[in-house]
Design a protein that fits this description.
With about 120 residues, this protein is mainly α. The protein is about 75% helix and about 0% strand. It has one domain (about 1-120). The protein has helices spanning about 1-25, 35-55, 60-85, 95-120.
Length: about 120
């Protein structure tokens, strides 16, 4: 367990840095907590589509970037579709928003990789 503690010592500051962005710009429940269910569903659907479209593992970085861009577009368009809100540009100069986008990119990198491996096992060519 010492090696896990050592690895977590390196990962914990990065994880807390990424969670600051999710806490600031991620979806929230009525109580103000992070809505992990909605975020997981949104990311899961986008990652599944990206993994199904990806033909070779060498394109993982491209599909990670595309998945992150689609995620940002959905975050902007969903309030317009649901509540008729006006268009708002994302605050790309705010560090907390960049932390949120970095969290999404890391999540898509891991998610698309896992789903692509599962796709390769279940649906061989």
């Amino acid at each position: 367990m010492e090696i896990v503690d050592m690895i977590w010592g390196y990962v914990a500051p990065i994880w807390s840095w990424l969670l600051e962005g999710v806490a600031a710009y991620g979806p929230h429940t009525a109580g103000g907590e992070i809505n992990w269910m909605f975020l997981g569903l949104q990311m899961g659907v986008i990652a599944l589509v990206m993994a199904l479209l990806m033909q070779q593992f060498g394109a993982i970085l491209i599909f990670t970037v595309v998945g992150t861009i689609v995620h940002v577009v959905v975050d902007i368009a969903l309030p317009m579709v649901r509540a008729g809100a006006g268009f708002e540009m994302p605050p790309v100069t705010d560090m907390a928003y960049l932390q949120y986008v970095a969290f999404a990119a890391v999540a898509y990198l891991i998610g698309i990789t896992v789903l692509f491996i599962l796709k390769s096992i279940v649906l061989p060519r």
